[in-house]
Structures are given as structure tokens and as C-alpha cells.
Write a structure and sequence with these properties.
By secondary structure, the protein is mainly alpha-helical. It is built from 13 helices and no strands.
Length: 280
């Protein structure tokens, strides 16, 4: 009986926390459907409902809220960063997990130590390097920045590769398979959960990053901005009165692709995390 009571109380507590967590999301959604353009703090739910904010984002973009251009820029950056970063992480993880070479443990320790330092410490240096290369104010520059150090995040993926039986690789080597063949034909097909985990993480980082994008993209033309930069601009003091509801609509639309990706790949995502945590 006591166990049932504790279980009920636990579920009530979790439901209460979930309700509190959902309040800002619900408010963002209902505000995006408001016909009032500014911030309405008098009512939680709008007095008049409208889809005009969503229509404005796509059908009537202006020089201030050029959402289609922002979305496309972020999508391009996210796609190529995801592709390059996932490839780097998988290759580095395979090298550390399945290959033996001089200095392997030292490199692993070095990468872990480097990964402990926050990225903001190197932002200014990165900016000046990219400026010397002429890659500021460009999508290519952001893709390079987001992808360049991705191999440092190898640890979880390596842990998953460690769980793959070494006998499979040894059998393939006896048959004359190269490391590339073992990697692409044996290890990768057996690593779908960790690949999904790696892909989602690689896409999330650039998708809504604001700080690095704001530092690198100095253009005054809104069509050159990312989604995060564009939405942040809409809540500036001079614009928030006319664009806050549009900002809420943009926030809902940006969240949809990520939410769908998580729902579709949730099972593989959880398996990737738990599988990678078995061995370090």
C-alpha cells in the first residue's frame, strides 16, 4: 500500500512539474495565434484569434521579418554542419575504439581536456582568424566553425563502438578487409542508434546558435541572418510592439522540425545514449 501511495505521489509531482514546464510553451503558441501584434500581459489567452502571424512569416515577409531567408540559411548551415560533424565524430571514434597506434591514450586524454574548455574562450581568436581568411559574413565560415572541432565530441560514440564484438572485426581482417571496409560494412551498420544520436546533436548545435552566428555575421541585410539572429532582432525595443506575435509564431515553426526529429528517432536516440555509456 505504501509503495502505491509513493508511486501516486511521485506521478502527481512529475505531472505538476510537467505542467509548469509546459506553461511557457503554451503561452508562446497561443500568443502566436493572437491578432494583437505586441506583448499582451493582461490575458493569458488572446481575446481575438488569427493566423495572420504565420501568414506574414511565409506569404508576406518584409525587410524586418524575412523568415524564409533566415530559415533557409539556418537549414543550409545545419545540414552541412550535421553531415561534416557526424562524419568527423564517427571517424575519430572508430580510430580511438577499434585501432591501436602510438600516442592513442595521450590523444584521447588531450581531447577530453580540450573539450572541457567552453567555446566562448576562443570566440575572439576564431573571429580574427576567419576575418583574415575573408570568411566572416558567410555561411561557409559558420559551417567551418561549427564543424572544425566536432571530432572532440567522440567519447559517447567511442563508448558505443567499444560494445561491438572485436571478433567481428578480426574475422573481417582475416578475410582481407581493410579498415575502411570494416568501418563502412561492419561497424556503421551495427551503430544506427549512436549515428542517430550523433546526427541529432550535430544538427541541434548550429540550428539555434545565436552567439557565434551574431559574432560572425555582421551584415545589416536581414536576408543574410540565421533564424536565431532574425528572431532576436524582432524583440528589440523598437520592434517588439509590432512583431512580438510574429516572433512567437517563428519560435513555434523553428521548434517543429526538431520536435518531429526527436519523435521519429527517439528510440534510437535513447539507445545511443545508454549504449555509449556502457564503456568509456
Amino acid at each position: 500500500m505504501q509503495k502505491k501511495i509513493r508511486l501516486i505521489l511521485r506521478h502527481i509531482f512529475l505531472a505538476f512539474l510537467s505542467f509548469i514546464w509546459l506553461i511557457p510553451i503554451i503561452w508562446l503558441f497561443v500568443t502566436s495565434l493572437s491578432s494583437y501584434k505586441g506583448i499582451n500581459t493582461m490575458h493569458f489567452f488572446p481575446t481575438k484569434w488569427s493566423l495572420d502571424n504565420y501568414i506574414q512569416l511565409f506569404a508576406r515577409p518584409d525587410t524586418v521579418a524575412n523568415f524564409p531567408a533566415w530559415f533557409m540559411n539556418s537549414l543550409i548551415i545545419g545540414f552541412f554542419t550535421c553531415l561534416i560533424s557526424s562524419t568527423f565524430v564517427l571517424m575519430v571514434s572508430y580510430a580511438f575504439s577499434c585501432m591501436r597506434f602510438s600516442g592513442r591514450k595521450q590523444l584521447m586524454s588531450l581531447y577530453i581536456i580540450l573539450g572541457m574548455f567552453p567555446g566562448v574562450l576562443s570566440m575572439i581568436a576564431i573571429y580574427f582568424v576567419m576575418k583574415l581568411l575573408g570568411l566572416t559574413n558567410s555561411i561557409l565560415g559558420l559551417i567551418i566553425i561549427y564543424s572544425a572541432g566536432s571530432g572532440l565530441g567522440y567519447l559517447i560514440c567511442k563508448g558505443f563502438f567499444d560494445t561491438i564484438p572485436i571478433s567481428l572485426r578480426e574475422s573481417a581482417k582475416l578475410e582481407g578487409a581493410s579498415e575502411y571496409t570494416i568501418f563502412t560494412k561492419i561497424v556503421i551498420p551495427l551503430s544506427k542508434p549512436i549515428i542517430v544520436y550523433t546526427v541529432i546533436n550535430a544538427f541541434l548545435s548550429p540550428w539555434m546558435d545565436f552567439v557565434m552566428a551574431r559574432l560572425m555575421i555582421r551584415s545589416k541585410d536581414p536576408s543574410d541572418w540565421t533564424v536565431a539572429m532574425g528572431l532576436f532582432n524582432l524583440v528589440q525595443r523598437t520592434l517588439v510592439g509590432d512583431y512580438f506575435s510574429v516572433f512567437c509564431a517563428g519560435g513555434i515553426i523553428v521548434a517543429i522540425p526538431i520536435s518531429l526529429l526527436f519523435l521519429i528517432m527517439q528510440r534510437f536516440y535513447v539507445e545511443g545514449i545508454t549504449g555509449g555509456a556502457v564503456k568509456g
